[in-house]
Amino acid sequence: MYREAGLKLDIVHLGGDEVASGAWDRTPEVQALMQREGLKTNHDVNGYYIRRITDILYKRGIRIEGWQEVAQNHSPEFNRQMAQRFAGINAWSTVGSRDIVPYTIANDGYPVILSNVTNFYMDMGYSWHPYEQGLHWGGKVDEFDSWSALPWNVYASARMAYDGKPIDVATNHQGKVALTQRQNIIGIQAQMWGETIRDFDQVQRMWLPKVFGVAERGWNAQPDWSLDLANTAPYDSARHQYNLKIGTRELPLLSRMGYNFRLGQPGLKVENGMLLANALYPGVTIRYTLDGSEPTQNSPEWTAPVKLTTVPPVIKARAYYLGKESVTTLLFK
After folding, report:
1. What does pTM read for this prediction?
2. Which of 47, 100, 183, 220 has the fewest CB atoms nearer than 10 Å to its CB?
3. Which domain holds residue 216?
């Protein structure tokens, strides 16, 4: 196929992740292989497989790629021999106790492609809203999460854990593996898994506008606001400007070009008997209801604080902009 296309096959991606523990341990073939080759554990079988495949491919000028599991927990000797045979390792673990994985692999000599689940998984939902499309096993990923990724400080790339608890980005690196082989962080990659995708409109909605953050971080791995993470003012200011450009420049362009995109829901709160609301971008229309019904384009428009004589059990609001509508925000009494 490559010859017919006039191309050279120079990389094969092995995958290598999500092998269930114990899946092969008791098969007669694996047992015989372990006895024949002197392999003591299932991980030894994994290493044997990687070595054998790379032996076949490397002498043909073909390097391999794989997910982080193929490069973990090997001996220094194995890493020295195998790392040069890899074109890239996709490292997805960037939160919790496994956030050390990308830098550990890079320090072991492997070329790492940061594929952070907390920043670059396009199939994660934009929020935890029950009607928001997307998965949530890795938390949520919106346009701010992708933009907040920091290749040179992976411990500050996620500002929220899988369970929604905040992460102190100024101190999260303390006591963890430091990146000593910076040259081995070779790039970033956004990915979308297709098992929940039903049509191309959904693909566009899941990518837009969060892909703008991927582009920003691919071009600039160390933005000015990341130099002093203890000071939140530069981050907040840059985040505001980034969001403003999305809402006033990028989304109108996408709309004119006929692309689908996701519109974020409005914020709601009641303070001193007044209903307050806000939207992500200038020009967004907010429609609300006080009787528990779903907002429509015919519902009252929120333009200024609304005085409530009594606070209803639930207040609902929805944003409208450039022909798109958001999921409904619900504020319970």
Report:
1. 0.92
2. 183
3. 11-249
